[in-house]
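in:
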């Protein structure tokens, strides 16, 4: 999407496409490229994962590793205790609590076929990543 004007090329800024990814034009790189930023579009269950203090997130990861869904169940109650989530501003605390309870139930019910156990471990890892980003001051959408 480049235009020729007066012998120079000008790029246009593309703000967002249908997949939820954003690209931004920035300073030219050494190779003449453009800086591109990509943001992941999260589903409602994943966006409902609360940002907890780091020690609580590690405990939830430990619980999810050995008893699938238990750490996610505990994290649902941290929402009621003030833990923040990306969805709270859109849907409210009660809805985010129930989304986390639903995720815990899915993990428990599908643990028999290993899917829930693996999902539970990844959920716990996401909790720890969000907590470490919170402690370092990095925005949640990273």
């Amino acid at each position: 999407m480049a235009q020729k004007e007066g012998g120079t090329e000008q790029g246009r800024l593309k703000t967002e496409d249908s997949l939820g990814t954003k690209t931004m034009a920035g300073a030219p790189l050494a190779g003449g490229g453009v800086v591109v930023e990509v943001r992941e579009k999260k589903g409602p269950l994943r966006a409902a994962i609360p940002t907890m203090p780091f020690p609580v997130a590690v405990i939830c990861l430990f619980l999810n590793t050995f008893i699938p869904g238990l750490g996610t169940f505990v994290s649902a109650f941290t929402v009621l205790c003030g833990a923040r989530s990306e969805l709270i501003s859109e849907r409210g605390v009660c809805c985010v609590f129930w989304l986390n309870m639903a995720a815990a139930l899915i993990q428990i019910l599908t643990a028999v076929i290993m899917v829930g156990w693996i999902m539970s471990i990844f959920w716990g890892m996401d909790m720890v990543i969000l907590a470490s980003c919170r402690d370092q001051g990095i925005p949640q959408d990273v």
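note: Residues 53-136 form one domain.
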